[in-house]
């Protein structure tokens, strides 16, 4: 059970990190424009970009965790 919880925590961090890496590829400020955090009220981690993204860039960045953590391992 402990290993399942640990794996879940690692996958959550990887999920948000993948969003951050993708966001940073699409903005001029790069990694400096990415913010990670945790909303305690909602018990939810998050990754946000401090610069505006195009619709296409946002869609690509939103889908990348599914690709890397879902389709590729599958």
Give the strand content. 15-25%
- Choose one word for the global shape: globular
Find the structural class using helix and strand composition. alpha+beta
SSE pattern:
HEEH
Overall mean pLDDT stands at 95
Parts with pLDDT < 50 across at least 5 consecutive residues: none
Helical run tally = 2
Helix content: 55-70%
Gyration radius, to the nearest Å? 13 Å
Please summarize what this structure is.
With 74 residues, this protein is α+β, with helices and mostly antiparallel strands.
Would you mind describing this structure in some detail?
The protein is an alpha+beta fold and 74 residues long. The protein has helices at 2-26, 55-71; strands at residues 34-39, 44-49. Strands 1-2 form a two-stranded antiparallel sheet. A hairpin with a 4-residue loop joins strand 1 (34-39) and strand 2 (44-49). Helix 1 runs antiparallel to helix 2 (55-71). It is globular, with a radius of gyration of 13 Å. The two termini are 23 Å apart.
Which helices and strands, and how do they pair?
Elements: H1 2-26, E1 34-39, E2 44-49, H2 55-71
Antiparallel strand pairs: 1-2
Helix pairs in contact: 1-2
